Amino acid sequence: MSFKKIASAAGLVLGALASTQSYAHHAFGAEFDAKSPLTLRGNVTRIEWVNPHAWFHIEVAKADGVKEAWRIEGGTPNTLLRRGINKRSIAIGTEIVVDGYWAKDRSNSANGRNITLANGKKMFMGSSGTGAPEDGADKK
């Protein structure tokens, strides 16, 4: 195989990977509704410490007792680390309260702003500059 063919094939593969990565990252307004704040209480079932956003999965009990799985988007792992949150900060099974914004498609998905633990400790889990509404939690 000639160098030209190998370089062309490598370029196509890299181009496909780059477009997948850029598609995965989005501004707040592309997926979440700033006019639909919500508060969720549930137990952590899984944490995905991945780029471009960390995800916290919780099980929420509705008023009728039925349990729903929710995915909560946080900031980038690097942003969360700078705020003192790492993948071991919240253990699986821990009950948390999440303040955030519901997904535009009304799926069980939300953008998280704050997590509050049972002891009252509040952690800001959003990222600034995404177009998400500011509630003052990210200003120090």
Describe this structure in words.
This protein is of the alpha+beta class and 140 residues long. 23% of the residues lie in helices and 37% in strands. It is built from three helices and six strands; from the N terminus they run H-H-E-E-E-H-E-E-E. The protein has helices at residues 3-24, 28-31, 77-82, and strands at 32-48, 55-61, 67-73, 95-103, 109-117, 122-124. The chain has a five-stranded mixed β-barrel with strand order 1-2-3-5-4. Strand 4 (95-103) and strand 5 form a beta hairpin. The chain is elongated and about 65 Å long. The model is unreliable at 18-23 and 136-140 (pLDDT under 50).
Quick summary of this structure?
With 140 residues, the chain is α+β, with helices and mostly antiparallel strands.
Distance between the termini: 58 Å
Mind describing the biggest β-sheet? 5 strands, mixed, barrel
Rg from C-alpha positions? Answer: 18 Å
Number of domains: 1
How many helices? The count is 3
Order of helices and strands: HHEEEHEEE
Percentage of residues assigned to helices: 10-25%
Report mean pLDDT, rounded to a whole number: 82
Strand sequence of the main sheet, in spatial order? 1-2-3-5-4
Q: Which CATH first-tier class would you pick?
A: Mainly Beta
- The secondary structure category is alpha+beta
- Strand residues, percent: 35-45%
The global form is elongated
CATH topology: the name is: OB fold (Dihydrolipoamide Acetyltransferase, E2P)
